[in-house]
Amino acid sequence: MTAYTVQQLADLVAGTVEGDASRRVEGVASVDRAGPTDLTFVMNQRNARRLRQGAAAACLVTPDLDLDANGTVCIRVANPELAFTRILDVFHPEQPSDPGIHPTAIVGRGTRIGSGASVGPYVTIGDNSVIGEGSQIGPHTHIDDDVVIGQDCRVGPGCTILHDTRVGDRVRLYAGVRLGVDGFGYTPGADGLTRIPQVGRCLIDDDVEIGANSTVDRGALGDTVVGRGTKIDNLVHVAHNVTIGEGCIVVAQVGIAGSVEVGAGSQLGGQAGIAGHLTIGPGARIGAQAGVIGDVPAAAVYSGYPARPHREALRASAGSLRLHEVLRRLSELERRLEGEGE
Amino acid sequence: MTAYTVQQLADLVAGTVEGDASRRVEGVASVDRAGPTDLTFVMNQRNARRLRQGAAAACLVTPDLDLDANGTVCIRVANPELAFTRILDVFHPEQPSDPGIHPTAIVGRGTRIGSGASVGPYVTIGDNSVIGEGSQIGPHTHIDDDVVIGQDCRVGPGCTILHDTRVGDRVRLYAGVRLGVDGFGYTPGADGLTRIPQVGRCLIDDDVEIGANSTVDRGALGDTVVGRGTKIDNLVHVAHNVTIGEGCIVVAQVGIAGSVEVGAGSQLGGQAGIAGHLTIGPGARIGAQAGVIGDVPAAAVYSGYPARPHREALRASAGSLRLHEVLRRLSELERRLEGEGE
Amino acid sequence: MTAYTVQQLADLVAGTVEGDASRRVEGVASVDRAGPTDLTFVMNQRNARRLRQGAAAACLVTPDLDLDANGTVCIRVANPELAFTRILDVFHPEQPSDPGIHPTAIVGRGTRIGSGASVGPYVTIGDNSVIGEGSQIGPHTHIDDDVVIGQDCRVGPGCTILHDTRVGDRVRLYAGVRLGVDGFGYTPGADGLTRIPQVGRCLIDDDVEIGANSTVDRGALGDTVVGRGTKIDNLVHVAHNVTIGEGCIVVAQVGIAGSVEVGAGSQLGGQAGIAGHLTIGPGARIGAQAGVIGDVPAAAVYSGYPARPHREALRASAGSLRLHEVLRRLSELERRLEGEGE
Fold this sequence. Notes:
3 copies of one chain form a homotrimer. By secondary structure, chain A is an alpha/beta fold. In chain A, strands 8-11-14-17-20-25-28-31-34-37-39-40 form a 12-stranded mixed sheet, with helices on one face. Chain A has a 10-stranded parallel sheet with strand order 9-12-15-18-21-26-29-32-35-38, with no helix packed on it. Chain A has a 9-stranded parallel sheet with strand order 10-13-16-19-24-27-30-33-36, with no helix packed on it. In chain A, β39 and β40 form a beta hairpin. The termini of chain A are far apart. Chains in contact: A-B, A-C, B-C. The interface between A and C is large, with 61 and 59 residues.
């Protein structure tokens, strides 16, 4: 088992030790599960109280939080969660796949696999594609013709990346992600609905992550774009010609209809739906399950169905609970006026 | 690069040229991105205005639309979008897979593969199944025993088609579709919930398309049926014993509970949910995110939760914004009546 | 074709025959489709009426239901549906896969495959994992390092089970299930959102079933847990550190956010969403599409958005339809008071 002194860990995150810097740390844990050889972290007084009842080896804590820690050694840092994340990597380093192309992988003509890249068992890659240096392609993933995957990506298992898709560097596509699927476009023809060929592309920028079983359609004519650093959760649907800006957070089961533009830094809550051709302004926050059927201004907070400013939605929701009372009071007034009229 | 004259393209769609019919077209693009060698289309005056600022080679346009196109050649047709779709196929023909059975595909006893069909790498097919002529089965797809797939289908990559499923002709199943999965049926037994064996089938008619990662359960006793020409988007759930009629549109993330009947020509908006055992009349339109908990008449337009006629839903929604005002006016009336009573 | 006498089937389920016990039964069917050689069942008078118009060979029926069955033989049992389920297994026994490891399966070092287990074509299993006796792993499934799968499980096709996941006995994971995927955890860093390593596990207890294309994330630090006998439908999302108790029912497309605790015996309706860090009390029932943003007491019935006690939600919903009327009556009162004031 790997172990570190509190001082070694503090040095990693440029923290200041209060207490026995030579104490031995063997693992990491949340504040309510930390044992005598674990490092943990607290962000606020409420969490700090849970620590008092525990007995961690050491605790990452903000510079000014008052920690009555019963002998737990403190490491003071500006952002304890970020520091903890850094130390998590030390105790739980990711297991890289073996570099090289597995003998069962099928790689097409003209496809280049970068140095240090790993192509797993039963992967299929078409012609004229590129897998960047250090990228890892998990088992049963299919990559089509003319796809470009950047460096240090992690793809799969079981992903599908269709032709002409572009994926940047350090992108993570979790199990079952489908990129560049035909969008949902039909037009009434003589013989029922006629499929509109979907000839655009799917462009995924650097540092994007996409959760398990999520789907991103290719563009119909133009492209579907997911901006740099955007994080998408599981089972999300991104339709054709959507543009998602940089640094957005898209929580599980969100659905974004065709040609929507989501501004940079927006957050879409779980199961929210955005109707087609709308614009979500930069920095907007859309509540979970919200149904957005109109444009949302920059930095606005919207919720409910139909989605509206969160304060209005709350007021309408609270009011709906008082409808019974309204009807009673109204009837009472009517009765009194009737009485007077007699 | 393939290029055509405007006249050649007009002939393809039986259109009439206004302007230089010999002009050269090298590609297709949407109206706001069309360049000097692109063909585009406009359906109405609003789009036409966007063209004026562009500089397309040629534009498909309705017979009567007034197009001040700054030198763009017009091709007049009854339905510009449909004509455009036809021409898209010319510039972006689908790449068929190579016919034949890939050496890594595993095909069971008694299974017949039609002529011109393509069975991709690492496909597994059970016993006594049929793959129709010209159908293409993508990599990592699993087809079970006793499955019938019609002609000219496109399946996969990564699909699962379980035993006894029937798929018609010209069906497209996108990546990760699961057909014929056991339905969600349990009954309380002595030892907790007991699984009810799901012994019905999953029947997909001609010209159906099903989007990425969607699931269609097999019937419990009877069958689950998707009618001819129906189009289903990504991440849709169709439960056991559902019947969807012909020519329906089912948008992404819709959920249809067990034994629902959806009439022909219905449209279900994204993320809508239909509770079990209900009937949606033919030609009904269900709004996005609607929660349907009662039958919907033919040709009705329903929305909201619980779903009701769209006009009522709109009125209720608008009214909820006025609750604050209602409470204020009510209190004012009560105050005045109190005052009079003194 | 296998056939049984009514008496043989009655013996299987400890039922009492009324009528010709020697009658031949060749299959099973629902009450509205049963033919002259089929066994069916009815649970109540309403279904019984549908039988009268049919002509089943025999019918499972409760001890006291009055069945005017036109010659259909009755088998009286306490729970006809449960008895029917038992007989379904007789007519439609599940086809087990051939035991053994398919030559195309890839099995890592130190991995043990139990006796009678079946590992299908193109399955990949990492190092130091265990597949229990009699378990069946379907094609294209990937099982990572250090995974334990219990006995008599059915997994796949096309599932992904990531490292350190524990799966109990008799568990069924339908096509495309993803277990132990990284949870959705990020913290703002200097360079945008920084991924928080997800180092917890995913623990699935005995007799759990998980529907097609559903995803269960691994814990961030602690574990994600699904309790014994819980049944999860298709396209469900279970986030990191969720705990679901025993014997719960989670219907299709439900989303459960991080660190939620769902009490034993709870039922979550289709497309319902539970916000993070909440507690759903044991035996609670959450309506379809409900949006839960606060704790739910034990045995409570909640619905709507935001979810509240079902009766309140119904009242608010009914009231919202009367808002138009409220406004009209209010204006009328105001007019009358104005008139009096003159």
